[in-house]
Each structure stands twice: as structure tokens, then as C-alpha cells.
Amino acid sequence: MRVLVTCPPMLRAIDEFRSLFAAKEVELFAPNVTQIVPENELIELVPKFDGWIIGDDPATARVFEAGRAGKLRAAVKWGVGVDNVDFDACKRLGIPISNTPGMFGREVSDVAVGYMTALARNTFEIDHGVKSGRWPKPAGISLAGRTVALIGFGDIGRNTARRLLAAEMKLIAYDPFFKTALGLETVQTAVWPHRFEEADFLVLTCALTRENRHMINRKSLEHAKPGLRIVNVARGPLIDESALVSALDSQHVHSAALDVFEDEPLPADSSLRRFGHRCVFGSHNGSNTVDAVRRTSHRAISLLFEMLDLGNPDGDKPTVTDSLTRPVSTSGFSLSEQ
After folding, report:
1. What's the rounded Cα separation, in Å, for the pair 93 and 10?
2. pLDDT (tens digit per residue) in 137-163
3. Is 105-281 the same fold as 2-103+289-307?
4. Do residues 86 and 62 make contact, with C-beta atoms less than 8 angstroms apart?
5. 262 is catalytic
6. Which position among 284, 298, 299, 306 bears the catalytic label?
7. Any idea of the CA torsion for 284, 290, 292, 297, to the nearest 10 degrees?
8. Helices and strands (DSSP H and E) totals, the chain
9. For the chain, where are the alpha helices, taking DSSP H only?
10. Which of 58, 91, 200, 296 to pair with 166, CA 20 to 30 A apart?
11. What pLDDT digit, counting tens, does each position of 79-135 carry?
């Protein structure tokens, strides 16, 4: 039996997991992947394997059809986001598939709050200035008392809310599946874009769906408070980047911290690069800690082995198998499992 892994964070730590595959006599193929494997390469590659642990690759109907015509029997999407995976095709083709929700809400929210602090206090500008031999002292803004529009109130959103409430901020959450939680009773909720004009910060932690693509666009940004600071640790296409560039040009948007982009890696000619320290960039790396990668990879392997009738890789009682069908919602702009 053969398994393909194309998830970069898992691949970078793959030696830690080789023994789990070897113990089940499973041949592991771990190619060198920077961000994704292109669709045409996946069409050639996937049919050669019984199982596939997917990263952010284009896991399209064409790929799954090729896989089904070959050896492919099951797949797991590593992580929470599933916008790159055609679950309908898997259902039609009879390929069991799952994702791994609830694995790194704390890690991604840590990055979100770090970005917020960076935008509020100009820390990247100061760092660059000191390294360049200067001694800059730009005046920032305090977090306490400021209002945050938090889009998405799943695992990542709730963890972000806990951290922001500790900073004495006011929160308005936008999520069609909003449910309060212990310690988060003061979080208010609204229907997007109602009350967006109150926000000093916009933080995106939701999943990407057909309905919310480019939800941050020219029209919504026109209604934003002047000086808005934007943080996106979710998915790049939630923001119309051309509209964001215009809002940054006019300085209606003060600054943006983006861990994700419409095209990844960020193209060399992207207009977002023009704004210096007003734009802080990440590399779609918000979940990547040693702890989170280990936790999520073990979960992905466990789910895949169950689907392949190999039992639990750690020899324990098998984990739940009722998530082996599509575990997500396709309406609104948030997944309840996120």
C-alpha cells in the first residue's frame, strides 16, 4: 500500500512520522513541495497511491477522477480549510475524505494578535529603522477600547476573541453560525456588513466559500472607518486585493497584515509590495508550529489509516469515523468546524 503526502508543514517534519507508516508496511512518498503541486502533476501522481494527505493543492474533480481510475481509495485534507478540495466529486466517486478541524485555533489566533499589535504599534517599521541605523519613534494606537470586526467565529475566531478581550477590546463577530462560549459572553454579533463602520480593526478568521469570495471589496471598504487596520489569517480571496490597494493608496485603510493572498506565493509584481511597512506579509504560515504540525499530522494519519482499514497508527482504539464524509457547511462565510 502506498500513501502520498503533499502538505508542506507535514513534509518538513516527515521524518518524525515515517515510523508510523513503516509499522503498517505502507510505502510513503513525500515529494519536495513549496506550496502546492499543480493540477496536471497531481493527475499523473495521485492514481499511483492508495491514500493521499492533501495540503493546499488543487484537489479538483479531474484529480479525483484520475485517482479513482487508479489506486486511490481515501484522502484527508490536512488542516481546516477545504476550499481547494472538491468534496462533491469525492462523494460522486465514492472516495472517503475528511479534514482535520479544530487543530490549530490557538496557533493561528496567536499570529492574528501578533499582526494586530504590529499594525497598532508600527513594530516592523521600528525594527527596520533600528537595523538601518536609525532610531524611529512612530506614535501608535492603544488596543484597549478599540473595536474589532471579527469575521468568523469558529475555533480560530473564538481563540482570537479570547486574546482580544484580554486586551480590553470590543468585539463584533460576523458568523451565520454564531454561538457564544464560556468567557465570550461580551462578544456582540451582527450580520455583515452591519456596524462595520464602527471597527478600528478588521480580522478575518473564516473559511472561504463561494458566497464570501471578495467580501472585502471597494463597496465594503468605502463604508469602513478611516484608518482601518486589516488582518487576514484566513484565505486570500476573501479580500479583493485591487480594492485593498486603492484603499491603501488613499490612506482610507491605514495598514494591512496579510498571511494569505489571492495568488500564492505573492507575485513579485504585486502592487501590495509598494506600501513598505504599511503592509506586513506572511507566507500562509499561521498554523505552523512544531506542536500544531505534530498534532494535526497524527490526526490526518489516523483518519487515513482508518479509511484504508489499517487501524490506528498508534495502536490505540480507532478514532471516530463519522467524519469521513464532508464535514463542512457550504453556506454563509464560515465553517462551524473552523
Report:
1. 27
2. 999 999 999 999 999 999 999 999 999
3. yes
4. no
5. no
6. 284
7. 100
8. 11, 12
9. 8-12, 18-23, 39-45, 61-69, 87-93, 105-121, 123-131, 155-166, 218-222, 241-249, 290-307
10. 296
11. 988 999 999 999 999 999 999 999 999 999 999 999 999 999 999 999 999 999 999
Cα distances (Å, whole numbers) of residue 282 to 97, 112, 231, 265, 286: 29, 11, 11, 10, 8
pLDDT tens figures, 274-327: 999 999 999 999 999 999 999 999 999 999 999 999 987 765 433 333 333 333
**CATH homologous superfamily of domain 105-281?**
NAD(P)-binding Rossmann-like Domain (3.40.50.720)
Name the nearest CA neighbour of 257 among 112, 93, 81: 112
Whether residue 223 lies in the annotated active site: no
Question: Which is nearest to 161 in space by CA: 186, 142, 194, 191?
Answer: 186
Q: Which residues pair with 255 in a beta bridge?
A: 229
Per annotation, catalytic residue among 195, 264, 295, 326: 264
Write down the catalytic residue from 162, 235, 254, 278.
235
**Percent of the chain, pLDDT > 70?**
93
When the pLDDT of each residue in the chain is averaged and rounded to a whole number, the result is: 92
Return the CATH number of the domain spanning residue range 2-103+289-307: 3.40.50.720
Q: Which residue shows C-alpha cell 471597494?
A: 218
The residue count for the chain: 338
Q: How many CB atoms are located within 10 Å of the residue 131 CB?
A: 8
- Closest by Cα among 283, 281, 234, 291 to 258: 281
Q: Please say if 264 is a catalytic residue.
A: yes
Dist. CA 106–CA 104, nearest whole Å: 5
Looking at per-residue pLDDT, the higher value among 338 and 96 belongs to 96
Q: Domain map of the chain by residue range?
A: 2-103+289-307, 105-281
Look at the alpha carbons of 205, 88, 21, 37 in this order and tell me if their dihedral is positive or negative.
Answer: negative
